[in-house]
Fold these 2 entries.
Entry 1:
Amino acid sequence: MKLLGIETSCDETSAAILDGPRTVLSSVVSSQVEHLEYGGVVPELAARAHLRLLRPIVRMALDQAGIALDDVEGVAATQGPGLMGALLVGFGFARGLAWARNLPFAAVNHLEGHLLSPILTDAGFEPPFLALLVSGGHTELVRSPEWLRYEMLGSTVDDAVGEAFDKVSILLGLGYPGGPAIDRAAAAGRADAWPFPRARLAPGSLDFSFSGLKTAVRTVVERRRGELGLGPGERLPAAEQADLAASFQAAAVGALLARLDQALTAHPTPRVVVAGGVAANSALREGARALCERRGVAFHVPPLRYCGDNAAMIAAGGILRLEAGHRWPLSATPVADFGRLPL
Ligand code: KG4
Ligand code: ZN
């Protein structure tokens, strides 16, 4: 089935054409630059940019796939979670197109899209798998015993890990989005320069907490700024920024890997997935790969282009769900907060 997928849950406007769940004919992702000067995504600006960009992006996806709109056999869009205004644009477009052309329509959970993203590149990818889903909005440990079934094993009790990267980056004056900036700065720093705390949750818990780590970084940054007599617009010296970025990253990634290791012991599973925007982090990719090697389990992490938000993963989820017989009424609407998995 040739299916058009659309993703507009946050600040990426994306369209993709897949021919079956494992064959990407085209994938177009446009990251909005409207938000850079605000240090975070402004929901109303995101919705307006999606409105402006979506039609040309869909056109590009069709052109790059070398097919016409008439060749499209199904449509899928992200139903949520995400920003309501942003979701409405892509979801309304997709549902309207499906209705007008009498095509099957799939409403896909954004988190399921991330969990399934290895299917786009890894021929051997299949359940059962244990997934660490790490993004700007989510930090979850999920087990999938079979296709389209999920068990939630653990979740963050406060900030998402991507959110922690973004906030620490602002604190360090490294800008937004913070993940890539910290990753780059950390490469030149010493990970053991500052012994930041790892959250201690109840023994056996597979939950995460990142707000204590963020506060610990803030305390050090404010103290050092005071000691150096820095004014509001002035940054710490680059070497100190790098040490703080590397030490924060080591603590955050260490916490993720410790939980993943614990989850593998509690729920032995032959395959591990690390997915979501933070799966682009170089320390996390290397650490998770080493952990999986040591534990003797297969490791799946999407290439960078499928770590962040993209419509190809949504299209894959849509095809799998349609093939499994799922159908959505024309009255289906976006859902800003899906709550927790299972879906
Ligand atoms: O999946 P995603 O694109 O959007 C959400 O669904 O949230 O994830 C975005 C998050 C942001 O917090 C961004 O800072 C983080 O992924 N991120 C990274 C890296 N690249 C993106 N975090 C750490 N290291 C990176 N290299
Ligand atoms: Zn996402």
Note: The longest strand covers residues 12-19.
Entry 2:
Amino acid sequence: MELAKHGADVVVVGAGPGGYAAAFRAADLGLQVVMVDARGRPGGVCLHDGCIPSKTLLHVSDLLTRIREADRLGIEVGEPRVNLDRLRSWKRSVIDRLASGVAHLARQRGVRMIWGRARFLSSGRLAASGEISAEIDFSHAVLATGSRPVALPGMPLDNPRLLDSTTALDLETIPESLLVIGGGYIGLELGTVYAALGSRVTVVEMLDGLLPGVDRDLVRPLEKRIRSLFEAVHLRSRVGSVRETGDGLEVELEFPGETVTRRFDQVLVAVGRRPNSEGLGLENTGVTVDAQGFIRTDTQCRTDDPAIFAIGDVAGQPMLAHKATREAKVAAEVIAGEESSFEPEAIPAVVFTDPEVAWCGLTEAEAKAAGQEVRVMRFPWAASGRALTMRRSEGMTKLILEPDSGQVLGVGIVGVHAGELIAEGVAAIEMAALAEDLTLFIHAHPTLSETLGEAAEFFLGQPTHLFRRPRRRRS
Ligand code: NAD
């Protein structure tokens, strides 16, 4: 096979939201860039097998839920019918449009895209093997190879009834019964989709709460709703053996104190993701990885090899696309000789369930674990006019404040549109805003954003729409 030879200032490995953002920023800074990816299209897991298809389906599930609940608001409609072919083709059209858009932007910037699997031959040369083979000599490289789902040992992996986060998004059928193993981000988001489409969803989570590590105040309203939408949620539980029975999968469920066997049409494994740091020829470079397989980097996204940078899921937690995108800009800017570093005060996290859960900055549990004194303000959405108009008053906005100055250290929100609302929390933390600042921002009425201002009003006294009788001072 013919070997194409290229030279580049920067070679970017991986064309996901980390990789293409790094390539674009480097090109915008005047560098000659080659981007390599095995998938054949830009966008990575986020665009093809993750954020975008799952949010497309979550939009559908939201619509279905609203239609079903419309009756309570005086709108009488029948049970909606789902046309899977049209649903899948709409999802594909969203992905295609975005992937073509990214490819177009790459061409406009003069970023050369090579479709093939990359392997480092040295700290200055990389081989790409795909339909054509290429070798690229580079001054700098950016590794943005992402992550993949963790498999559970003992599972019949080649069985089409066993899904991971990628195959679950294909939505080949709507199973009557679905077991979700893992009550984290993916398990709950995809469980929400399948429940709305009509599946009886059971979740098995090995720890003692859903979304481990997330503030319990935020998880509680979500868990309550999930328990009403799903068939069952089992905590402190695990899955033992899984066996094909011809018409389903027979699963041994280990609940606290008893083991039972149940049959499910499909089983989704969503027990975490691991970094893609193997098979890249890193042994031919100075790049090192930690015990979990994450590539070691510094605050400039530089690996232990001065010519090679790493960003996104492969470079450590949190495995979130927007963290990758920010790191991408840092890596490109450092390579171009600019001063830049990745030292955010707040990285937002959003779980796109119904209701959504979003948070940023310090959490109450983290403050407690560190022995840090904070003041915590909670504003229940039952006192929000906007939440009531939507019949979604189960939400809550929570602020973690420095006790003397009222500086905003953390924000947590549970409720519809929490993922959009958290942006104000990020801005507040990054700008070192005080609770007083949040009370002075004029929030449009009637909007859910008012709950941020009202939560902050607790720090100064009473919020307009709540009254808590001050504690009597003992004489
Ligand atoms: P996760 O870490 O969020 O959740 C995995 C869950 O599985 C945990 O609750 C864990 O306790 C549980 N678990 C592990 N082994 C188990 C077992 N044997 N039996 C039962 N439960 C078990 O992982 P995920 O949901 O697979 O998602 C992976 C990552 O992808 C997330 O951490 C996140 O970074 C990213 N992600 C983000 C979004 C988003 O931003 N909205 C959406 C999806 C995924």
Note: The pocket of nicotinamide-adenine-dinucleotide is lined by residues 152, 181-187, 189, 204-207, 212, 238-239, 270-273, 318-320, 350-352 (CB under 6 Å).
